[in-house]
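Hi C.,

You asked whether I'd gotten around to modeling the 62-residue construct. I have! Everything is below, sequence then structure, no commentary in between.
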Amino acid sequence: MQALFDLLVGFLALLAAAALHQLGVDFTSAPRAEREVHRVVDCPPPPSSAVTVSEPAAAPSC
């Protein structure tokens, strides 16, 4: 019984596709354009999270 039902549904889908084709409906999608790939430079490494303590820097001489 299930096979008969599947056959009937498939036949109706075929008839619907044929009728819509006669009206000019196209179900095929247009080919998509290739996506461009832009290569970028890797990000620099993040700053160290360790805190270093040193003597205060001398005033810059101009």
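If it helps when you're writing up: The helical segments are 2-22.

Thanks,
B.
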